[in-house]
Structures are given as C-alpha cells and as structure tokens.
Amino acid sequence: MASLENVFSVNLNQKVILVTGGYGYLGKAITESLLAHNARVFVLGRDKNKFYKAFETNKNLDENLFFEYCDISETESIKNAFSNISQKNTVNTLINNAVYLSGQSPEKMTDEDWSRGVDGVLNSVFRTIREIIPYFKTTGEGKIINVSSMYGMVAPDFSVYDESPNFLNPPHYGAAKAGVIQLTKYYASYLGKWNIKVNAVSPGPFPSKKVQENREFINELKQRTCLDRIGQPEDLGGIFTFLSSDASNFITGQNFTVDGGWTSK
To answer: Gene3D superfamilies, alphabetically (predicted)?
Structure first.
C-alpha cells in the first residue's frame, strides 16, 4: 500500500519507468517530465546516437536517465531489453510510445504498407505488454501506459488537408490506434487481479517542428481546438507523470485525451 504522502503527490520517488521511443519529439517531453518528478527512466530505442543528441543538455543524464537498445518489431529484442533492465531494477511502469509505419494514401496504399503500419502501431504494443507481464506479476503491481491518438477515436477532418495533402493522416494509423484503446481496456480487465493498471493517452494536434513550418496547415489545426492553438510537447508530459504516480493507483482501463478540446466539439 502506498503511503498517504505518495498518494497525494506526483513525485515519482525513483520509480523505474521504461519509455519506448523516449527520445522522439513527444517521447523526449514525456521522459523529461518523468525525470523532473524524480523517476529513473530507461529510454528504449534503436539509435543510441539519437538518444544522446536528444538529451545532451540534460544534467540528469548520468544519474537517472539510461538508454537500452530495443527494437519493438522483434520479440527477442523486447525480451532482451526487459531482461537486461530487470537484472538490477524493479520496473514500475512501461510507456508504449514508439511507432513505425509507411504509406499514406487511402486509395493506393499497398498491402505491405498496411501490414507494416498495423504492426508498428498496434502489434508492437501487444508484444511489449505480453513481455512485461511476467515481471509485473512477480512484483505484484505495475503500470502500462499506451499512447493512442485522437484519430483512434474520431475520423480526420479531411478539409484540414485540402491545401496540405502531404500531411494527410493515413488510414492504418487511426485504425491501429483505435486498436490500442481496445487493447488497453482488454488488458486492464485481464490484469487487474494482479494489481496491474493499464491506461491509454490519446494526443491530439501535436505537429512536429518541421510540420510547424507550414503556417497555413497549423492555422487549420488551431481552429479546430477549443484553445485556438496546437499542442506543445510540454503539454503532454503531465498526464504520463500522473498516471505513473501513486496518485493514479485506482485508475485503470481509461483513455485520457489531450487534444485541446478537438474531440469535444
């Protein structure tokens, strides 16, 4: 049982948290929020150089931030990463943030692109959940936070892309992200008796810095939120910190939408 001090706080108190893709545009902000709240964070990814480049100015790098090689497309790679970390650490939380996909056209997408997208967005989450379960069962608790998307909840507004077709949201992305939400509910129900909580976070409009160079497209996105702005990476960190903390110990099977009100309209 968590102490009252921990329940009333989002201080992560050296909890060990794994973040797949934790050096990307949004993953970096998630990781930095966790570090700011005193977590020990293992970033799982395939490129150690990108990891060091992303966090080269972070003073906590040597103390609480670590890199572990992990290819989420390969079960053996996931198993090895979890095993390596668990030899000296008790994992508290797994955050499934990484994705991979190819293809974009709703009409001309190949079977190969469709399969790769579903594998990189949905199947990869299943693989990591499956492989972390034995560790959480052993410790008698654990938390899994899956990253979905508002496009797993609603269809794109295609008028947004009229003048910016290169940014068109692809069909397999939303379909797979919807699957992530259902997978979250499934495993929340299945794993609850072992005190393992499973939740999802669905970001809304968080375009990358490169995409933000297209001001016309960004204005289209802004107009569809209630706050008249796009999301910034730092807007996303708090929900992952909260869900990783003891303050969320009675929350499971939920999907938290962080979209500036887009889907509420």
So the answer is: NAD(P)-binding Rossmann-like Domain
3-state DSSP call for residue 50?
helix
For residues 35 and 182, give the distance between their C-alpha atoms in angstroms, rounded to a whole number: 29
Which CATH number fits the domain that encloses residue 195?
3.40.50.720
pLDDT tens per residue, range 85-139: 999 999 999 999 999 999 999 999 999 999 999 999 999 999 999 999 999 999 9
Residue 76: CB atoms within 10 A of its CB come to 9
Domain, as residue range, for 46 = 4-206+232-258
Listed residue (197, 169, 180, 204) closest to 253, CA to CA: 197
User: Do the domain assignments include residue 171?
Assistant: yes
Q: What angle do CA 108, 110, 113 make, to 5 degrees?
A: 120
39, part of any domain: yes
Residue 190 C-alpha from the chain's centroid:
21
If you average pLDDT over residues 256-264, what whole number do you get? 98
> Which alpha helices (DSSP H) does 192-262 contain, by range?
215-223, 234-244
HSE-CB for 91 with a 13 A CA cutoff: 28
134: enclosing H helix or E strand: helix 124-139
Kindly indicate the confidence band of residue 56, based on its pLDDT and cuts at 50, 70 and 90: confident
Does a structural domain hold residue 219? no
- For strand 91-96 and strand 65-69, is the pairing parallel, antiparallel, or unpaired? unpaired
> pTM, whole model, 2 decimals?
0.95
Lowest mean pLDDT among 53-62, 135-144, 164-173, 223-232: 53-62
Catalytic residue list: 173
How many alpha carbons fall within 13 Å on the CB side of residue 68? 24
Please check whether residue 217 lies inside any domain of the structure. Answer: no
